[in-house]
Design a protein that fits this description.
By secondary structure, the chain is an all-alpha fold. The protein has a single domain, classed as CDP-alcohol phosphotransferase transmembrane (TM) domain (Four Helix Bundle (Hemerythrin (Met), subunit A)), CATH 1.20.120.1760. The chain has eight helices and two strands. It has a two-stranded antiparallel ribbon.
Length: about 240
């Protein structure tokens, strides 16, 4: 019975992702879709935390968590980028812009999918480090993509500059999920700060969502660049049997 609470949160994460996909296909507001995906991020953080507190962690829970994450942090953001940026009326690669859109969506989806499957495999096999992630986590990448999308949409609405900048950064950052670059696991304080920004983003009216979005983008950029700014991140803090 104790396992029902974390499982319910995992399923809530998946439900938020499915609803975000539905809203994307019905051309709903960018802010509404982004809110659903970051709500999934909140559920994703809570399910694992509560499972550890109740000592009900299991391989089934890991698999369910990864499947839910694939929906919310892999499929939903990829579809949002495609529907938001793709310009119909031209064959994808006949138009350099549409070629950039398709390439960005493809890399975002493939690398997020690979990262989530690899993470589940490593956890089930008892591999990896308790203090670090191997490669950029898919939820962190999704938070970066969404906050970037909201900020640039606010600064450059319907601007080609904002669109190209967003797509180019997705192309640049997404491959980090397939690397073995070591990213530190966030502390309790860091998780609380991110959760606070997400909650503020969810409750504020649309006109004011830009402010927590800037905060989430700033934290995302700092986290993504941390291993490259801090050389000690390349050193193994804890011996790990992860394959090279």
């Amino acid at each position: 019975m104790r396992g029902l609470l974390p499982l319910s949160l995992t399923l809530a994460n998946a439900a938020a992702g499915i609803l975000a996909i539905h809203m994307t296909l019905t051309f709903a507001s960018l802010y509404l879709i982004s809110s659903l995906i970051v709500l999934g991020l909140l559920f994703d953080g809570l399910d694992g935390q509560i499972a550890r507190m109740l000592k009900v962690e299991s391989n089934m829970g890991v698999i369910m968590d990864s499947l839910s994450d694939i929906i919310t942090f892999c499929l939903a953001p990829s579809m949002l980028i495609y529907v938001t940026f793709y310009r119909p009326g031209a064959i994808s690669f006949a138009s350099p812009y549409n070629g950039l859109v398709v390439s960005s969506v493809y890399l975002l989806f493939i690398f997020s999918l690979y990262r989530l499957i690899r993470y589940a495999k490593d956890v089930i096999n008892g591999q990896g480090s308790k203090r670090e992630f191997s490669g950029l986590p898919a939820p962190a990448n999704a938070l970066f993509v969404l906050s970037l999308l909201v900020v640039l949409h606010h600064l450059f609405p319907f601007s080609t500059i904002g669109r190209v900048a967003t797509l180019s950064l997705i192309l640049l950052i997404s491959p980090l999920m397939a690397t073995r670059v070591r990213y530190p696991r966030p502390s309790s304080l860091q998780k609380a700060v991110v959760a606070g920004l997400v909650i503020i983003f969810l409750i504020l009216p649309t006109d004011y969502k830009i402010y927590p979005a800037v905060g989430m983008l700033t934290l995302s950029v700092y986290y993504i660049t941390y291993p490259f700014l801090n050389r000690t991140s390349y050193k193994t803090v804890e011996k790990s049997p992860l394959p090279r």
